[in-house]
Structure formats: structure tokens, C-alpha cells
Amino acid sequence: MSMIKIVLAAVITNNYVLAKFLGICPFLGVSKKLDNAMGMSIAVIIVMVLATAVTWPIQMLLLVPKGIGYMQTLVFILVIAALVQMIEIILKKYIPSLHKALGIYLPLITTNCAVLGVCVLNIDEGYTFVESLLNSFGSGVGFMLAMFLFAGVRSRIETNDYPESFKGVASTLVAAAILSLSFMGFSGMIDAIFG
Amino acid sequence: MSAFVTPVLLTVVVGLIAAVLLAVAAKFMAVPVDETAVKIRECLPGANCGACGFAGCDDYAAALAKDPTIKTNLCVPGADGVAAMVAGVLGQEALDVIEMIANVQCSGVCDATKPEMDYQGLKTCSAVKSFFGGPGTCKYGCIGFGDCTRACLYDAISVCNGVAKVDRSICAGCGACAKVCPQGIINLVPDVMRVHVECSSKDKGKKVMDACKAGCIGCKKCENTCKFDAIHVENNIAVIDYAKCKNCGMCAKECPRHIITVFPKPNVKPIVHVDEK
Fold first, then answer.
1. Is the pTM for the entire model greater than 0.90?
2. Which contiguous run of DSSP H or E holds residue B64?
3. Using one digit for the tens of pLDDT, what is the confidence trace for B108-123?
């Protein structure tokens, strides 16, 4: 039960983009077209889960026993950057079609705050290894949900005629704010369901 | 002291391990990059226009490097210069490129035709086309909101007096404008052909008369004038057979609507590298 709760909470109430404001840059940058948004989201899900699978053991087996837990930010950035690079090399060799589909999005994620955020927050929340993986997966799916909704909204905005002063970034930010506002409505929902 | 040494050491070690792993992976899982493809790619203009029929310059270069049967003269924007360079890299004989140029088949400037409605929506051709086929009285002609201007990679097409106009000295013949034009009135024609019928209306003469002062009424004067059997009226519009046309321009002189245009001789164009702009 608590497993389902973690995933649902990560997707809806604690949505990384719309409730925690992490990973805003791809959210605004890559959400212009639905297929681009999908490529980015899939890459984020993969990297989030793998990054957690690597950083959680490092924190618990290496940093904490040595008493240098405060080094997590630096070490995590290092490890995630190397990991993403490694994934890219492996994909290029063995699954070139997937590598082509993910394209530029994979290296873009290297410095994404949502990925680093999920690794750090897993540890702050005191999750076990399995719970951490679930939370990361849920967060990735939440990111995908936000990207999809927003890409849909943006493609609708683009075909409409609206005042000149709202064109471009202004309308995008207003739409993002309203979307975030609607997600705030979910707060407390998960706790109410699962007690 | 150890409070300082441990974290530094640990970070260095983690970094080193990651570096070694990556270096090993890069060595053993390297995908060989085709050097010929890289060299060919450097010759190509980099506009990624798709005139060659491939997804972009990278794709065309890769295909050329892999398959020797693919012709080296497919890059229309690059013209003979690029074709010669590409052929040089591959060690083949240079092939001549048939330079193409965009031609807007409409003469319906603001003085010649009138809008039928007062359109106030989104100012793009594709948007207005969805409202009863456009705002103009003539449903075949140029809409004039400049979708082609925005699509052009070379700033070679602009809207003058309500009709798109191609700057023939700049146009690279990539066809990006032709792809976005909702009216389908921009065509790629061989650069050496200089006589063109600048009207696309398939309506009957009377209707064209009412709609536009510069529209083809299908009078067949050009057809009767032509000594080479190169121009014919089909579907109420004069069409030039470029295989037979000798650029004499007799039809243009006879046309009572003055819509057959004779363009000046083409100049030799410099190769424009888009990424260098």
C-alpha cells in the first residue's frame, strides 16, 4: 500500500515540475511539440531511475559511513554526469534507434535539477532502496504528465489569436502558472485517500 | 586533517573511477565514424533544406559515403561548386547540377485584384486558407501573408504589393517555400528557363476577368504564337512545356493579360554556407 502511495504522491501531489518547481527549464524549453516532449520525458524517466540506483548506494554505503554526507551534492553531480555519458555510449553502440530518438535530450538531462533533486530528496525522505526507485519512477512519470499536458496546452495556444503583448514567453509562463495552480488542488488528496 | 583529506580523496577517487570507466567504454564501444561522410558534410551548405531528398545535410553525406550509386549532384542550393567538391572527396567525376529556382505563379498584386472579405485573424497563409480558401476574390492566387518568407533560409523571397516575389539572384532553389505554400503556387523551375506563366487560376475566362486584372483567361493567343509547340492551355491556364521552350519570349509579347514574364539571364551564384551567416 505504501508503495502505491509513494508512486501516486510523486506523480500527482508532489509533481516535480508543477508542485516542487524542479526541472522548469526543459518544461518550458522542450514542450513546444508533443513528440519532443515525449522524447525528453522518456529520457528523464530512464535517467532518474538509474541515477537513484547508483546514488542511493553511494550515499548509504560510502558517504554516511565515512561521515561525509554533506558531500552528496558534489559527488551526486559527478556520478550522474558520468552515468548519463555512460548510458549514451552504451545506447549508441547497442540500441542506435533509441539513441537517435532520445537525441539531444539525454546529454541535456546531465545537469537537470529534477534528476539531482530526486536523488537528494530520496535520501532526505529516508526512503529505502526500493522505495527510492519507486519514487524516482513516479517522479519521472509525473514529469512526463506535466510535459504532456503543457505541450497540449501550448499547441492549442499557438493556433489562437491573442493580444500581441502576450505572444511568446508571456503566454507560456501564464499557461504554466495556471497549470501549476490546478495541480496545487491535488495537495492533501493522497493523504486523504491513504489515511 | 582527516576531515579535509577524506572528502577530497573520496571525490577524486569517485571521479577517477568514473573517468576510467568512461574511457574504457568509449574505447571498446566506439561506433566508427565514417570519415568520408564528415568530409562530404563539410562541403555541403548546411541548410538542411531537404532538396536532395534526404532528411538533411548529415543524412545526405552519410548516404553518399555509404552508397556509391547515389548521385553527387543532388544538392540544388550548393549548385555546381558543391557537386564538384563532393565528387572530389569521393574521387568521382563531377556531375552538372540542374540549378532550380523558386517561381511564384501569381501576378495578382493589390492593384489587380481585391480581397473578398475583411480578414482579421491570425496573419499566416495557412490559417487564412482554412477560411473559405482565403480572403482574395481569386481562390488560386497568392495570399500574401508570407509563410514562404518565414520558411526561406536565404531571405530570398518577400511579399511585394500583396504577392510573394523571389529574388532570383539569391534563391538557392531548395524548395522550402514551395513546401509551406498552402496555395501550392510556388514551383521549382530550372534556372535556365526564363519564361514563365505567372498565374495559377483554373477558373474559366469570365470568372477570372471578374476576379483579377492579371489572370490567365485561357485565350490561347500564346498557344497560337509559339513556334515550338511549347505552350498549351490546359484546364483554363497556359502551361509551358520546359522541354520544348526556347526562351524566345514571343508568347509574353502576345499575352493580352501581360502575365507571361520573361526573366533576365541567370547569374552565377556564390555558394552560401548557412552556418557561416
1. no
2. helix B57-66
3. 888 888 888 888 888 8
